[in-house]
Amino acid sequence: MSRIPFEQLPADVRRAISDKTGVVHRALTAEGGMNSGIACVLETNSGRVFVKGIPTDHPQVAAQRREAAVAPHLPASCPRLYWHLESGRWSLLGWEVIDGRHADYRPDSPDLPLVEAALVELQDVTAPGGIGIKDAVDRWADYAPPGTLHYFEGNTLLHTDFAPDNVLIAGDRARLIDWAWPTRGAAWIDPGSLALQLMEAGHAVEEALAFASRFLSWRNAKAEALAAFSSATAVLWREIAEVDPTPWKLGMAERAAALAHILNGNP
Ligand SMILES: Nc1ncnc2c1ncn2[C@@H]1O[C@H](COP(=O)(O)OP(=O)(O)O)[C@@H](O)[C@H]1O
Ligand SMILES: [Mg+2]
């Protein structure tokens, strides 16, 4: 959806925010991402806060509520959630501000070891129960080859959306943001999702797979599981690109197909 500046939020919604933060002195709209109708850093009487929000009648509001629910369970690489409010037809989250920039995934980028460290930390987190996060088996059910869905089962908390604008580099750390798709599943799924994004940033498929192999979960995964995941991802991106053949979606579909080709045993 298109992103509006803070000032264009209805007055009662802005008031609900300043009830949380104190007087708002300045608002700076964030770059990157495309789902949030509002995404900005506010300077307020109580300090700075990153506010993202979406109208409560928007189909993606469920994702925003999942993000609020998972927030207390996130590891240290993720920002802290200060508040969640729903007011005047807007759902809003107030997060700790990360003073960073979007990750650079290109080959030889010095950000890559930082991204690796953040994901290594996340790989040890068990998905919290009772908060209605997604299940990998359900998410890939329509795409996985017949008889392979059990490979996606697991108890790890997965991020699943490693687009570079969902990873902020701040100092010597990578911080994982945008938890719209928290998922319970097999731990190797996240290194696999990241590998596809690395290809999008210019890694050859072998380099992307070498990066995925830095993660224990990927090294220990059955070849059949990785083949199933890559096939499912290729089908998913092909579908996305068919519905909306914009260049980046066509590019993702092409890379997902290349990954599936190799992981299904083709040279
Ligand atoms: N905690 C934060 N501190 C500073 N900037 C942030 C923070 N979280 C997100 N951003 C910025 O806002 C953008 C959009 O936020 P994100 O959570 O990715 O929402 P979406 O992609 O759903 O619109 C990010 O790409 C990033 O540039
Ligand atoms: Mg985002």
Summarize the structure in short.
This protein has helices spanning 11-21, 61-70, 112-123, 136-140, 189-200, 205-212, 216-220, 223-243, 247-263, and strands spanning 24-29, 38-44, 47-55, 81-87, 90-95, 101-102, 134-135, 156-158, 167-170, 173-176, 183-185. With 267 residues, it is of the alpha+beta class.
Tags for this entry?
9 helices; binds adenosine-5'-diphosphate; globular; 267 residues; 3-stranded antiparallel β-sheet; alpha+beta; 2 domains; 5-stranded antiparallel β-sheet; single chain; binds magnesium ion; 20% strand; Aminoglycoside 3'-phosphotransferase, Chain: A, domain 2; 38% helix; 11 strands; Phosphorylase Kinase, domain 1
Tell me about this structure.
It contains 9 helices and 11 strands. The protein is of the alpha+beta class and 267 residues long. It folds into 2 domains: 90 residues, Phosphorylase Kinase, domain 1 (2-Layer Sandwich), CATH 3.30.200; 163 residues, Aminoglycoside phosphotransferase (APH), C-terminal lobe (Aminoglycoside 3'-phosphotransferase, Chain: A, domain 2, Alpha-Beta Complex), CATH 3.90.1200.10. It has a 5-stranded antiparallel beta sheet with strand order 1-2-3-5-4, sandwiched between helices. Strands 6-9-10 form a 3-stranded antiparallel beta sheet. Strand 4 and strand 5 form a beta hairpin. Helix 5 runs antiparallel to helix 6, helix 5 packs across helix 9 and helix 8 packs antiparallel against helix 9. The longest helix has 21 residues. 40% of the residues are buried. The mean pLDDT is 96.
